[in-house]
């Protein structure tokens, strides 16, 4: 009991010093042995102290470097603070493509829907997976993505996040293991935590996942599913080549793993190889939405399910939202069928290419990387900078960014930022990016 009380006293002492500002963000704490010697406790107790401080978000350990005090302003991590201490200049933490010229299109589409002879159908509840007519429109659209399925394999969702949650509800149980890249979409992390699933990290090997490591993982652990973004990966921007996709599908087939293929940003690369769904249709759930191509507020998505799992997905939808809102579905399918979606996908690609050119120009002396037509980029920080403190510095100048720990499936995220480029007006973006470059270069080490 005395040992436990002593351990808690050390935790409280260090926590109080951090919260009072006596231990500033970025301060390197003593090694485990030094802490144990100073407080006359066992090394195991010192390790327990640091583990508790890390669990409450006050410190972070870095292999080969030590333990550091984390910034407490809250501008890093998956639930980052969004209220800035100064006037906001730009939000590069979230992609919300500008709705230039879309207001008139929305007004016209709503008039068209209002004048249709089936307006009363929007007041009635649709089937959980969507009406066959609406699913057929989506299935036809997916042909251009290399996905050829019958309409009854398509289920409609309230966006890609809802699709992920629906698939996990239908196919997993608490304690199951999902393999995902070491850096991956934060929505997967939130959903996996809610479903009490373990995320097994897949290391990176060049431009893509280390498939040897994935194969070893599948051979040694009971992997239930592999979550992947093969086209315009978020946040790293890679697009996997056909050979890599084929091997990934073979690994999943050999070890009887499901594949959750997130195609949310796939529309940005119209030269990409065929989706994984083409290589392993009997085990792949392909999901996407119209949030980044049409409008983030539309909340309309779709999931292509293997025939053997479609009923389970429908049950999952029935238990949650009972499918999509009829009015939103009518608007989305109208824009898909009349070519509006194709128009905006082309426009978003051109806009993204322009924004990436501006980003590479402004950040050329840093190690900025991005897909040439993606709506975001990845910015590793110089060795002397930390992501949490850098995000706070930028927040105090009016700019929100996202730190690498938002995306990580490991306990030791890299010090890097993801910059979402789609939200600011194009004319303001060069100034914003130059400001980021200047700020990073002037933060003291």
Please, could you describe this protein's structure?
The chain is α/β, with parallel strands linked by helices and 445 residues long. It folds into three domains: 2-69, Orthogonal Bundle (Arc Repressor Mutant, subunit A), CATH 1.10.10.10; 90-95 and 344-442, Alpha-Beta Complex (Aspartate Aminotransferase, domain 1), CATH 3.90.1150; 115-338, 3-Layer(aba) Sandwich (Aspartate Aminotransferase, domain 2), CATH 3.40.640. It contains 15 helices and 14 strands. It has helices at residues 2-20, 32-39, 43-55, 102-114, 132-142, 160-171, 186-194, 211-220, 242-254, 276-279, 310-319, 326-337, 340-362, 387-395, 429-442, and strands spanning 59-62, 66-69, 90-91, 154-157, 177-181, 198-202, 223-228, 258-262, 284-289, 301-304, 376-380, 399-400, 402-403, 416-420. A seven-stranded mixed sheet has the order 4-10-9-8-7-5-6, with helices on both faces. A three-stranded antiparallel sheet has the order 11-14-13, covered by helices on one side. Helix 10 (276-279) links the parallel strand 8 (258-262) and strand 9 (284-289). It starts with a helix and ends with a helix. The mean pLDDT is 92.
CATH architecture of the largest domain: 3-Layer(aba) Sandwich
Given helix and strand content, the structural type is: alpha/beta
Query: Largest sheet at a glance?
Result: 7 strands, mixed
Count the DSSP helices: 15
User: Could you give the order of strands across the largest sheet?
Assistant: 4-10-9-8-7-5-6
The number of strands is: 14
Query: So what's the oligomer here?
Result: single chain
Our estimate of the beta-strand percent is: 5-15%
InterPro entries: Aminotransferase_I/II_large, HTH_trans_reg/aminotransferase, PyrdxlP-dep_Trfase, PyrdxlP-dep_Trfase_major, Tscrpt_reg_HTH_GntR, WH-like_DNA-bd_sf, WH_DNA-bd_sf
Keywords: DNA-binding, Pyridoxal phosphate, Transcription, Transcription regulation
Domain HTH gntR-type: 4-72
Pfam families: Aminotran_1_2, GntR
């Amino acid at each position: 009991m005395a040992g436990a009380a002593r351990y808690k006293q050390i935790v409280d002492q260090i926590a109080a010093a951090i919260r009072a500002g006596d231990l500033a963000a970025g301060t390197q704490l003593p090694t485990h042995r030094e802490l144990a010697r100073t407080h006359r406790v066992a090394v195991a107790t010192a390790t327990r102290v640091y583990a508790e401080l890390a669990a409450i978000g006050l410190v972070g350990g870095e292999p080969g470097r030590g333990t550091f005090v984390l910034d407490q302003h809250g501008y890093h991590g998956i639930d980052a603070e969004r209220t800035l201490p100064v006037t906001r200049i730009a939000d590069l933490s979230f992609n919300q493509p500008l709705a230039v010229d879309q207001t008139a299109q929305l007004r016209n589409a709503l008039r068209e829907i209002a004048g249709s002879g089936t307006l009363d159908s929007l007041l009635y509840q649709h089937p959980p997976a969507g009406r066959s007519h609406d699913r057929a429109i989506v299935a036809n659209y997916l042909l251009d993505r290399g996905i050829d399925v019958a309409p009854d394999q398509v289920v409609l969702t309230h966006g890609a996040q809802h699709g992920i949650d629906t698939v996990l509800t239908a196919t997993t149980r608490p304690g199951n293991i999902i393999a995902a890249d070491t850096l991956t979409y934060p929505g997967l992390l939130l959903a996996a935590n809610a479903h009490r699933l373990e995320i097994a990290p897949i290391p990176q090997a060049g431009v893509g996942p280390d498939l040897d490591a994935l194969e070893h993982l599948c051979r040694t652990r009971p992997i239930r599913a592999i979550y992947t973004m093969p086209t315009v990966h978020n946040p790293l921007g890679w697009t996997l080549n056909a050979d890599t996709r084929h091997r990934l599908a073979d690994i999943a087939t050999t070890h009887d793993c499901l594949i959750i293929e997130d195609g949310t940003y796939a529309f940005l690369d119209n030269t990409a190889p065929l989706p994984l769904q083409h290589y392993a249709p009997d085990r792949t759930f392909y999901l996407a939405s119209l949030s980044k191509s049409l409008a983030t507020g539309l909340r309309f998505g779709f999931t292509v399910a293997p025939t053997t799992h479609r009923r389970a997905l429908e049950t999952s939808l029935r238990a949650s939202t009972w499918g999509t809102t009829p009015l939103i579905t009518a608007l989305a399918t109208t824009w898909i069928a009349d070519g509006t979606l194709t128009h905006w996908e082309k426009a978003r690609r051109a806009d993204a290419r322009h924004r990436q050119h501006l980003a590479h120009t402004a950040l050329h002396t840093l190690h900025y990387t991005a897909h040439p037509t993606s709506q975001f980029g990845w910015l590793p920080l110089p060795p002397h900078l930390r992501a949490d403190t850098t995000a706070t510095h930028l927040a105090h100048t009016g700019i929100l960014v996202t730190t690498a720990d938002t995306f990580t499936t490991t306990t030791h995220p890299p010090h890097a930022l993801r910059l979402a480029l789609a939200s600011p007006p194009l004319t303001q973006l060069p100034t914003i990016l130059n400001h980021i470059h200047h700020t990073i270069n002037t933060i003291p080490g």
